[in-house]
Design brief:
- There is one protein chain.
- By secondary structure, the chain is an alpha+beta fold.
- It contains 4 helices and 4 strands.
- The protein has a 4-stranded mixed β-sheet with strand order 1-3-2-4.
């Protein structure tokens, strides 16, 4: 992970400059950006475009089936990020995130590259608050 010279404040609860937890969050963002470039490459190679990108942690528990068609039926789903409305910690619960196609492009393609972007709106307490702010800055709706 590379840090800028005078980095703006990010993840004040566990600074990436000072803590392993913060550095792990930034590494995760770097990995997600890398994976999104592979999604785009795969789409080009196959001549198709995915409707959604689903991110879920391995410790998330599913209580029933996940019906993508119900999300696809919603007008404007392409620019939405859907998350669980619990344990938001002042932001967005990041255990499971469902990105509409346009939302995935806007957010995931620059998640690591724009992490240190100089924008006061991104001065977040924790990862959940950063997700919320970053999604907003990128012009994506969170639901």
């Amino acid at each position: 992970i590379q840090f800028p010279r005078n980095p703006p404040l990010r993840l004040k609860q566990y600074s990436p400059i000072e803590t392993d937890i913060g550095r792990s969050v930034v590494r995760k963002f770097m990995t997600l950006e890398f994976l999104m470039t592979h999604v785009r490459s795969r789409e080009r190679a196959m001549g198709v475009q995915y409707d959604f990108v689903l991110l879920t942690r391995d410790d998330d528990h599913w209580m029933g089936p996940f019906d993508l068609l119900s999300f696809k039926a919603e007008n404007g789903h392409e620019n939405n990020v859907y998350s669980r409305n619990c344990k938001t910690e002042g932001g967005i619960n990041d255990k499971t995130l469902l990105f509409g196609r346009l939302a995935a492009e806007r957010v995931l393609e620059r998640l690591y590259s724009d992490f240190w972007m100089r924008d006061k709106r991104l001065e977040a307490w924790n990862a959940e608050a950063f997700w919320k702010a970053f999604i907003h800055v990128k012009g994506v709706r969170s639901k």
